[in-house]
Design goal:
FtsK/SpoIIIE/SftA; DNA binding; Rossmann fold; alpha/beta; single chain; 25 strands; ATP binding; 743 residues
């Protein structure tokens, strides 16, 4: 705590740590680059490679501006060569320093992963040239999947036109494109609204980081430890001058100190006079802290000095108290424009970013007020071909086959797998929170996930048909084998008996074998079979089939639908069964005088048996309750591995959109907010989906993209009807019949 950059900063600001000699301050009372150059280099440890690198190897590791430009202009192995596991990742060259004895100059570098953040101070022209050089190095050597670049340039002391002109070249870099769900065209901020949006995106990432929401109060040792464990991707945040409001000033300062814990590193630019005998280094540092509040939190700083600001003093961990004196590296605006335009059309070969062989998770984004289920499923245009492709992928034996998309989550579509995450799902929420719509979406999502002969749905409206359409609108899905309403007690009793019998039948067939293992052995394993040509005397199903030589089409025929080989009869069909129950509380505590009251008890007992024993038999229960207190002591509530709570998470009086909720996983205790997908809305008008082309200025690139308001066809089909029609045609084409009904 007494040495290094902290002591240097204390001496600059007039402070002194306990035990420091007052004479130490005299070393910083006046700065003369020519006189101090040799002394500063002499203080470097022999192995201080982080500050100065020797000989040709140093130039190869940290190339100059000419090499960087050639790397961008032509094909070569150096482009985007540094991943998170590269030893020189996020290391930037700032200039060159001379050695004793007239030896050749060697690069002076700063390792951002070690320093945390970097502050640059000096006159505007030289400062901009140095910043362009440093940013270009990082953009040329790190791919967009490894490094993203964010600009915050909202200093009110400079005209917006001047700021935009200085940074317009940055907009061409692929690292500035939003790749983690940010709501903007480019990761730029030229006004206070854009700056607030960029800062909020970074704060959300830190809240989701290893230090959690309390990252701002973490000790430096905790931040350093988390930064050392972070393996990418990284974010470089350029803060040019004063960010503006007091809130942004405080946020950027906290980001400079705590951001490295989540791979966020700041490059702070502060416009000051060059350090000189007339303007000492201490005064330069104080001016930099005034110009950029985050400058004081930077672990490494570089101050331009000299009559024409071509000298640079770099102070960082391991460089000694006086730092390293170097000749600055700088490039012009025209150079930067040419460099950035050369990188603009380039893309990574693998768009699904993996960094260092690891999957990169998307950054958290704000939840929308509404979400369309088909968009979250990736079925904006639901066709039989796209559904058959999904079903073919579901035949992969590594997948449990019980995954459903609930809606839009903070990191993309939120998926819940009842086979892997929990046996059953309980949805809780008051009236008008979207319980029924969520059950409809779950039914549609499950139907889109697997074939109707491998997955079947049973729908129960516990509140009766008098409460509206309920789940009846889902009966067109080919996977739905049975629909019941509590207002029909006769059928409800039959359903209770049939469900109990189904559980016994499955238990006898499985005979202790886990359902997942049994399912793996009895998957249809579709094969491609060319239809036979029609010839005279041919009878049976082959007659009238098209000739593949003329149509070029092959038919998929499931093995389960073919005659049994070697005379062995085919196994009885046993698809994974989902029982969806709306208004479960109305069955547990039926109202006096309700028509379904006589049969409610038997139905609840059958559902309780599913909650206790169904998971091992491939039967899952999804129930919705408007009164959790009435169902709290049921086996359904106790055995629910997944639980959804709809409505306001905090203050009940706070208005929230219908369908907003939290998904709780009992296995790990995690909670994920989401916006439930809507499936009964009308399909959008065609004009809504057409692209829009408008001229844009660089200063507006940080705004959210313009979107046409979603307009539904007033008399058109719903998304659910569109999906059901496509599912029916896909089932017919794949030869996948529905399972027999329970009742």
């Amino acid at each position: 705590r007494r040495g290094g950059l902290g002591a240097w900063a204390r001496r600059l600001t007039g402070g002194r740590a306990a035990g420091e000699r007052p004479d130490d301050d005299a070393a910083f009372a006046e700065y003369d680059p020519a006189a101090d150059h040799a002394a500063a280099l002499a203080e470097l440890p022999g192995g201080a490679e982080a500050a100065v690198s020797d000989g040709p190897v140093g130039y190869e590791r940290w190339p100059d501006a000419a090499t960087i430009l050639l790397t961008a202009l032509g094909p070569g192995p150096r482009l985007w060569e540094r991943g998170p596991d590269h030893p020189d990742a996020l290391t930037v060259r700032l200039g060159t320093a001379s050695r004793h004895g007239g030896r050749a100059a060697v690069p002076v570098t700063v390792e951002l992963r070690r320093a945390g953040s970097l502050g640059l101070a000096g006159p505007r022209t030289r400062l901009a040239g140095l910043a362009r050089s440093a940013i270009a190095q990082l953009a040329a050597l790190h791919s967009p999947g490894t490094l993203e670049i964010v600009l915050i340039s909202t200093d009110r002391a400079r005209a917006v036109e001047e700021r935009v002109a200085d940074w317009s070249w940055l907009g061409w870099l692929p690292q500035v494109r939003p790749a983690h769900g940010q709501d903007c065209r480019l990761l730029l901020a030229h006004d206070k609204e854009q700056a607030a949006a960029r800062a909020a995106e970074l704060v959300r990432r830190l809240d989701d980081g290893p230090l959690g929401p309390g990252w701002a109060s973490a000790e430096r040792a905790e931040v350093a430890s988390a930064a050392a464990r972070h393996q990418g991707p990284y974010t470089l945040v350029i803060v040019d001058g004063d960010p503006g409001s007091s809130a942004l000033r405080e946020t950027t300062a906290r980001l400079a100190a705590g951001g490295p814990a989540a791979g966020i590193h700041l490059l702070c630019l502060a416009e000051t006079p060059a350090a000189s005998p007339a303007f000492p280094l201490a005064a330069t540092y104080e001016a930099a802290r005034e110009a950029s509040p985050a400058f004081g939190e930077c672990g490494a700083v570089a101050v331009l000095s000299g009559d024409v600001a071509t000298a640079l003093r770099v102070v960082q961990p391991g460089s000694g108290p006086n730092g390293t004196v170097a000749t600055v590296d700088a490039v012009s605006g025209a150079w930067a424009e040419r460099f950035a335009r050369a990188l603009a059309p380039l893309r990574e070969t693998d768009a699904t970013a993996t960094v260092g062989g690891r999957t990169v998770h998307r950054a958290a984004v704000p939840l929308p007020d509404s979400a369309r289920l088909l968009d979250e499923l990736g079925l904006a245009r639901a066709t039989p071909a796209s559904l058959m492709a999904r079903w073919a992928a579901a035949l992969d034996t590594d997948r449990p086959g019980a995954a459903a998309v609930l809606g839009a989550g903070p990191h993309g579509p939120l998926c819940a797998d009842l086979a892997a995450d929990g046996s059953h799902l309980l949805v809780e929420g008051a009236a008008a929170t979207g319980k029924t719509e969520l059950l409809r979406s779950l039914a549609a999502s499950l139907a889109a996930a697997d074939r109707p002969d491998l997955l079947s749905l049973v729908l129960v409206d516990g509140g009766g048909s008098e409460r509206g359409e309920g789940l009846k609108v889902c009966t067109d899905l080919p996977h739905v084998t049975t629909y019941l309403a509590a207002s029909d007690p006769v059928r409800m009793r039959e359903f209770a008996q049939a469900l109990s019998s189904e559980l016994k039948r499955r238990a006898e067939i499985l005979a202790g074998t886990p359902f997942a293992e049994w399912r793996t052995k009895h998957l249809p394993a579709p094969r491609i079979v060319a239809p036979r040509r029609t010839t005279e005397g041919t009878s049976g199903s082959a007659a009238g089939e098209p000739d593949p030589s003329t149509t070029g089409t092959l038919r998929l025929r499931a093995r389960s639908g073919a005659p049994a080989e070697d005379g062995v009869p085919a196994a009885a069909p046993m698809p994974r069964l989902f029982v969806l129950v709306d208004d479960f509380d109305a069955l547990v505590a039926p109202a006096l005088g309700s028509t379904g009251r006589p049969a409610a008890g038997s139905v609840v007992r059958a559902l309780e048996a599913v909650a206790r024993d169904g998971a091992a038999l491939g039967v899952h229960l999804i129930a919705a309750t408007g009164h959790p207190d009435r169902t709290a002591e049921t086996a359904t509530s106790e055995r629910a591995g997944l639980r959804v709570r709809l409505g306001a998470a905090g203050d009940p009086s706070e208005p929230v959109p219908a369908g907003r909720g939290l998904l709780h996983r009992a296995a790990d205790g995690s909670s994920t907010p989401f916006q439930a997908g809507r499936v009964t809305g009308r399909i959008p008008r065609t004009s809504t989906l057409r692209p829009t082309v408008v001229p844009l200025e660089w200063r507006r690139m940080g705004d959210p993209p313009a979107r046409r308001p979603l307009r539904e066809l007033g008399n058109g089909p719903t998304d659910l009807a569109l999906l059901a029609s496509a599912l029916q045609r896909a089932a017919q084409s794949s030869g996948a019949p529905s399972a027999p009904p329970l009742v």
